[in-house]
TrEMBL record, chain A:
Keywords: ATP synthesis, Cell membrane, CF(1), Coiled coil, Hydrogen ion transport, Ion transport, Membrane, Transport. Its main location: membrane. Produces ATP from ADP in the presence of a proton gradient across the membrane. GO terms for cellular component: plasma membrane; proton-transporting ATP synthase complex. Residues 91-118 form a coiled coil. Residues 88-130 form the ATP synthase epsilon subunit C-terminal domain. It is found in: Cell membrane. Pfam families: ATP-synt_DE, ATP-synt_DE_N. It comes from Pontibacillus yanchengensis Y32. It is a peripheral membrane protein. F-type ATPases have 2 components, CF(1) - the catalytic core - and CF(0) - the membrane proton channel. CF(1) has five subunits: alpha(3), beta(3), gamma(1), delta(1), epsilon(1). CF(0) has three main subunits: a, b and c. This is ATP synthase epsilon chain.
TrEMBL record, chain B:
Pfam families: ATP-synt. It comes from Pontibacillus yanchengensis Y32. GO terms for cellular component: plasma membrane; proton-transporting ATP synthase complex. F-type ATPases have 2 components, CF(1) - the catalytic core - and CF(0) - the membrane proton channel. CF(1) has five subunits: alpha(3), beta(3), gamma(1), delta(1), epsilon(1). CF(0) has three main subunits: a, b and c. Produces ATP from ADP in the presence of a proton gradient across the membrane. The gamma chain is believed to be important in regulating ATPase activity and the flow of protons through the CF(0) complex. It comes from the Bacteria. It is a peripheral membrane protein. It is found in: Cell membrane. This is ATP synthase gamma chain. Gene3D superfamilies: 3.40.1380.10, ATP synthase, gamma subunit, helix hairpin domain. One of its GO terms (molecular function) is ATP binding. GO terms for biological process: proton motive force-driven plasma membrane ATP synthesis.
Length: 134, 287
């Protein structure tokens, strides 16, 4: 089975670099599956989980907070502002972030704060989902 | 001439100061090490994002995005990166001096610019001069995470998108080596120099869903990461500057201690000589 190299980079440093057989992620237009030999592609990702499927070994799941997917025939790069494996997710912190965001959403203030809280809530929910799903 | 006891107490106090500066020097050295690693970890991200932005911008197709186009400048924003604490030699003063000069050269009234200081020293500097401060961040960690400055970075980018400001400059100390740092002021927005600084893109991409959507999401992220890059660079410079300053202070203390010891010994010798003369004089008087 052909593989492609996947590297996940964030401003705080590379998170992962390994070969996998398939990448499936959620772009802004919907689900996207990448197999080796894909044409070069750039797509924005939503706040979601990215699943990396390896052959024998089980698949990996990574929580990304937005960012980009850059595809080359044998290499996939994910550029995200933050990316974590489920084992690196701090459950308590995510829980706190969720509660904070929810509180903020209830006390509607101005537009920017509202948007920011919404994004924060999405990120927290995404982390919680992946942590509990793993 | 100072008394023996005075000199002695000065020597002791200088020695204590030297211990402190020596410790600070070593702390800064290890922080510098870490800051350098941070900067290295950040590089792959920056390179990649630059490559993608450049390949879209140079794709030959008409790209139309407010962040790529210059517009008439009514108001300019300045991000200034300084440290929270002093004792870092000329680190803060050189940045602040440069920014202050540029602002006074370019603008005649306070409505034409706004400052976004990062770091307490910079904030105090601008607040004292009654310069308009849009927002500020202080108390940053020595090794800041991207999440720490995400808010202020996106706010700065937002100001540009809202057309509150029409230009955004960033001023910081660029880390050249452990002993040299240079002040750098660059224009962050609009992003006019992408096509010139990047090499030819390696491949042309398919865009999903289309270039405009991608640019809309990518450019703010790019600008934010430029700000973070400057901050990481600035932090490395800060630790380097502090290390050098503390090393100079330790060396000075050494020199001072040498001088003081010399005059202490001289004074001691003089006192002994005087005592002998007095004894001899006394004995001679008895004969």
């Amino acid at each position: 089975m052909k593989t492609l190299t996947v590297s996940v980079v964030t401003p705080d440093g590379p998170v992962l670099e390994d070969s996998f057989e398939m990448v499936s992620c959620k772009s802004e237009n919907g689900e996207l599956g990448i197999l080796p030999g894909h044409i070069p592609l750039v797509a924005p990702l939503t706040i979601s989980g990215v699943r990396l499927k390896g052959g024998e070994q089980s698949s990996e799941l990574i929580a990304v907070s937005g960012g980009f997917l850059e595809v080359r025939p044998e290499k996939v790069t994910i550029l995200a502002e933050s990316a974590e494996r489920p084992s690196d997710i701090d459950l308590e912190r995510a829980q706190r972030a969720k509660e904070r965001a929810e509180r903020r959403l209830q006390t509607k203030q101005d537009d920017i704060d509202f948007k920011r809280a919404e994004l924060a809530l999405k990120r927290a929910l995404n982390r919680l989902d992946l942590k509990q799903g793993s | 001439m100072a008394s023996l006891r005075d000199i002695k107490s000065r020597i002791t106090s200088t020695k204590k100061t030297k211990q402190i500066t020596k410790a600070m020097e070593m702390v800064s050295a290890s922080k510098l090490n870490k800051a350098e690693q941070n900067a290295k970890a950040f590089n792959p991200y920056m390179e990649k994002i630059q490559e993608v932005v450049a390949s879209i911008a140079n794709g030959g197709v008409d790209v139309d995005h407010p962040m790529l186009k210059s517009r008439p400048v009514k108001k300019t924003g300045y991000i200034v990166i300084t440290s929270d604490r002093g004792l870092a030699g000329a680190y803060n003063s050189s940045v602040l001096r440069t920014v202050n000069r540029h602002i006074h050269e370019r603008h005649s009234s306070k409505d034409e610019y706004t400052v976004i200081p990062m770091g307490r020293i910079g904030r105090d500097f601008f607040a004292k001069r009654n310069m308009p401060i849009e927002s500020e961040i202080t108390g940053l960690a020595d090794q800041p995470d991207f999440a720490d400055i995400k808010d202020i970075a996106s706010e700065a980018v937002q100001l540009y998108s809202d057309e509150t400001i029409d230009e955004l400059y960033i001023y910081y100390n660029h880390y050249v080596s452990a002993i040299t740092q240079e002040v750098r002021g660059t224009k962050l927005l609009p992003l006019t120099n992408i096509s010139t600084e990047a090499t030819q893109p390696k491949s042309s991409y398919e865009y999903e869903p289309d270039q405009d959507t991608i640019l809309k999401a990518l450019l703010p992220q790019y600008a934010e990461s430029l700000i973070y890059g400057a901050l990481v660079d600035g932090k490395a410079s800060e630790h380097a500057a502090r290390m050098t300053a503390m090393k100079a202070a330790t060396d000075n203390a050494d020199e001072l201690i040498d001088d003081l010891t010399l005059s202490y010994n001289r004074a001691r010798q003089a006192a002994i000589t005087q005592e002998i003369t007095e004894i001899v004089g006394g004995a001679a008087a008895l004969e």
